[in-house]
Amino acid sequence: MTDARQPSATEAAFIAAVHSGDTARFALITERHRRELQVHCYRMLANYEDAQDMTQETFLRAWKKRESFRGHAALRTWLYRIATNACLDFLEKRNDRTPVPSELPDPDSEVLYLQPYPDRMLPEDPQESVVARETIELAFIIAVQHLPPRQRAVFILRDVLGWPASKAADALELTVASVTSALQRARVTMREQLPDRRLDWRSPATHELSNDERGAVKSYIEAHERNDLDGLTSLLRDDLRFAMLPDPGTVTTTAREAVDGWVSNGLFQRGYDDWRGITTTINRMPAAALYLRTPDDPAYRLFTIAVLRIVHGRIAELTGFDATDKPWLGLPPTLRSGESPSSTSPAHGPRHRSHRGTSTPTS
């Protein structure tokens, strides 16, 4: 992302639209950046619906400030600056957008406002896969939320998008020294939050699922389908981290205790024993979209999404999200009895076979 010395053809057209008051042309040009701006807002806010709102707010602010664009910087840079500040203004007004203490015995915290990000809404331009997998996965999004808002903005602009310090300082109306100091502090926090993860966010990284990941999610769904508790237990690591958002209570538990707990809460009991699943990816992670059919209901209804982090073929983290009333996930709301579910095809990933499956009523 480098500033343009001379406006590009697109930017020249944008300036012409500004001068002529051509709202349709203005909207057409800015709309090309919607997906990447929405991902940027999601990293800042960890909530898909908030990111949608702030992306729209970005376009409204861009129209109001249209006369300020002279083409000295790239249009993309100008829009990112507006989006970043829209998110900072949002965070300043909301006191419910910070991590809260978790129930884990070790000092930890939870991001209860976290929402999944559908892969189909990621930018399609390969260049934009600076939306590298590592910077859209849940662990990264959660870790970023532990940074104070302005530090968060500095970190994303500098270490994720690769902006030079001078450009980030200009966007945030800070000095270069302040940006450098904020970035150093942010990197320390990120290392603490992600001690076992790669920290060079700008180097190339694949977003394809590994064979281990594909195999584990397939086995996870099939174990539920067969009511195979031993098989399910064998898929889980003994240091499994489990959360069902937006409910509080992330826990670290053994595999057997996790399965026993799910059974005691109703899994495989009447009303929670007839499931189907669609294999998909969420936040570029393997996931199962799970459908529940209750007695006397002819249809399986979208109920929850289980997002899995796979380590050496076993499930290390399971994050469940309530999937009801979220049409933006792009999943069919129902599956008919006898219908063969088809897997979703993420914007940047392999197509997966689908399987029938079940999950816990709380996962």
TrEMBL record:
<dbReference type="Pfam" id="PF08281">
    <property type="entry name" value="Sigma70_r4_2"/>
</dbReference>
<dbReference type="InterPro" id="IPR036388">
    <property type="entry name" value="WH-like_DNA-bd_sf"/>
</dbReference>
<dbReference type="GO" id="GO:0003677">
    <property type="term" value="F:DNA binding"/>
</dbReference>
<dbReference type="Pfam" id="PF04542">
    <property type="entry name" value="Sigma70_r2"/>
</dbReference>
<comment type="similarity">
    <text>Belongs to the sigma-70 factor family. ECF subfamily.</text>
</comment>
<keyword id="KW-0805">Transcription regulation</keyword>
<dbReference type="InterPro" id="IPR039425">
    <property type="entry name" value="RNA_pol_sigma-70-like"/>
</dbReference>
<dbReference type="GO" id="GO:0006352">
    <property type="term" value="P:DNA-templated transcription initiation"/>
</dbReference>
<protein>
    <submittedName>
        <fullName>Sigma-70 family RNA polymerase sigma factor</fullName>
    </submittedName>
</protein>
<dbReference type="InterPro" id="IPR032710">
    <property type="entry name" value="NTF2-like_dom_sf"/>
</dbReference>
<feature type="region of interest" description="Disordered">
    <location>
        <begin position="331"/>
        <end position="363"/>
    </location>
</feature>
<dbReference type="InterPro" id="IPR014284">
    <property type="entry name" value="RNA_pol_sigma-70_dom"/>
</dbReference>
<feature type="domain" description="RNA polymerase sigma-70 region 2">
    <location>
        <begin position="31"/>
        <end position="95"/>
    </location>
</feature>
<dbReference type="InterPro" id="IPR013324">
    <property type="entry name" value="RNA_pol_sigma_r3/r4-like"/>
</dbReference>
<dbReference type="InterPro" id="IPR014305">
    <property type="entry name" value="RNA_pol_sigma-G_actinobac"/>
</dbReference>
<comment type="subunit">
    <text>Interacts transiently with the RNA polymerase catalytic core formed by RpoA, RpoB, RpoC and RpoZ (2 alpha, 1 beta, 1 beta' and 1 omega subunit) to form the RNA polymerase holoenzyme that can initiate transcription.</text>
</comment>
<keyword id="KW-0731">Sigma factor</keyword>
<dbReference type="InterPro" id="IPR013249">
    <property type="entry name" value="RNA_pol_sigma70_r4_t2"/>
</dbReference>
<dbReference type="GO" id="GO:0016987">
    <property type="term" value="F:sigma factor activity"/>
</dbReference>
<feature type="compositionally biased region" description="Polar residues">
    <location>
        <begin position="337"/>
        <end position="346"/>
    </location>
</feature>
<keyword id="KW-0804">Transcription</keyword>
<dbReference type="InterPro" id="IPR007627">
    <property type="entry name" value="RNA_pol_sigma70_r2"/>
</dbReference>
<dbReference type="InterPro" id="IPR013325">
    <property type="entry name" value="RNA_pol_sigma_r2"/>
</dbReference>
<feature type="domain" description="RNA polymerase sigma factor 70 region 4 type 2">
    <location>
        <begin position="143"/>
        <end position="189"/>
    </location>
</feature>
